[in-house]
Amino acid sequence: MKKKVLIVGNDLELISLSEKRFKLWGYETITCFGEQEALKLQRSEGETIGSVFYPTRSKLPLN
């Protein structure tokens, strides 16, 4: 059985990128937009979710 990760965010591009990464690493993914939806999923999925990931963009300068 694959490990399941819940990806929560408010940036659709980051959610999509994160989902692709986790799938490459062999995880089953569930994605949602925003914290309220995440709480509903956590309640309905319960113990099947092994991890929660909230991607953010770095605000550090690249140079």
Protein architecture, described:
With 63 residues, the protein is α/β, with parallel strands linked by helices. It has one domain (4-50). Helices cover 38% and strands 24% of the residues. It contains 2 helices and 3 strands, in the order E-H-E-H-E. The protein has helices at 12-24, 35-45, and strands spanning 4-9, 28-33, 51-53. The chain has a 3-stranded parallel sheet with strand order 2-1-3, sandwiched between helices. The protein is globular, with a radius of gyration of 13 Å. The termini are far apart. The model has no long low-confidence stretch (mean pLDDT 84).
In terms of topology, how is this protein built?
Layout: E1 4-9, H1 12-24, E2 28-33, H2 35-45, E3 51-53
Parallel strand pairs: 1-2, 1-3
